[in-house]
Design a protein that fits this description.
single chain, 208 residues, alpha/beta, Rossmann fold, 2 domains, four-stranded parallel beta sheet, 14% strand
Amino acid sequence: PDIRLALTTPGRVARLIEARNADHIHIVTEGPLGIMARRYCRKADRPFTTSYHTRFPEYLSARLPIPEAWAYRWLRDFHNSGQGTLVATQSLADDLAARGFTKLRPWTRGVDTDHFRPDKKKDMGLKRPIFLCVGRVAIEKNLAAFLDLDLPGSKVVVGEGPELARLKARYPDAHFLGHRPNDELAEIYASADVFIFPSRTDTFGNVI
């Protein structure tokens, strides 16, 4: 639910790539578009790289009875066929290497420090310490592990998703703020005391 998939045809993807006359192609998803782009690159003998963002085997097993080993086997073939796979952390690289992934390359992340600054701290009117979790409110984010914790102060969740109504009903003492624009989000980050990231399927979530 709430995840958009781009539905098109291999021929259209090939035409779009050729129209860009790109020197190099980077594939950021193992979904339908990524599969078609990889197919084009291999058929046209075009170099391409990929990046590994989400632990899809764990993501799928949280929703469907699909063995993780099957998904990892498919992902290994998908990523190993390119010139390199970009990963955000060394721990992820080590884990994927142990699973047979090759040509792993580091791809570090950054923070816009002009926008996200500690001096944007404000009074949220909540009991401290404030424990903050930001992201899509969905089963794979493992939010119950955070909300079940016996913590002092206040628990705050920012984001929307298919699990929002159920979690709000189950955890009435938590503060669910829904979607927040970037300016307000920067203030919320600065105002929290502890950031919580309970997901076990993200590799290096953008919210971090």
